[in-house]
Specification:
mainly beta; 120 residues; 7-stranded mixed beta sheet
Length: 120
């Protein structure tokens, strides 16, 4: 069983930064950040292989967002820089027990979600 607890969302002006955290104990193979804007489907943002540290990003956040993890703290992060209004969404962290995929259906556990709002 993996329980995920998120923190770090908020309101920021365009061009600003936020860091999201997701703490979760238990076995996991890959961790991902997803987001869902009103009226849109949940989409992949970034992912990391827990043991090896390989990272993956959707094109729209490459160069602006950085995913990382602290194994000792059982926590992973999403550093978001140069935020844009189109980044506004509820952000979710998720854990996959067996493999890495970009599809949200492949993830076994989810955090509660945290709102990120970027004003123009």
């Amino acid at each position: 069983q993996v329980q995920l607890v998120e923190s770090g969302g908020g309101l920021v002006q365009a061009g600003g930064s936020l860091r999201l955290s997701c703490a979760g104990s238990g076995r996991k193979y890959a961790m991902g950040w997803f987001r869902q804007a009103p009226g849109k489907e949940r989409e992949f943002v970034a992912g990391i292989i827990w043991s090896g540290g390989s990272t993956y990003y959707t094109d729209s956040v490459k160069g602006r967002f950085t995913i990382s993890r602290d194994i000792a703290k059982n926590t992973f992060y999403l550093q978001m820089n140069s935020l844009k209004p189109e980044d506004t969404a509820v952000y979710y962290c998720a854990a996959s027990l067996n493999r890495f995929r970009m599809s949200p259906t492949e993830y076994d556990y989810w955090g509660q979600g945290t709102q990120v709002t970027v004003s123009s």
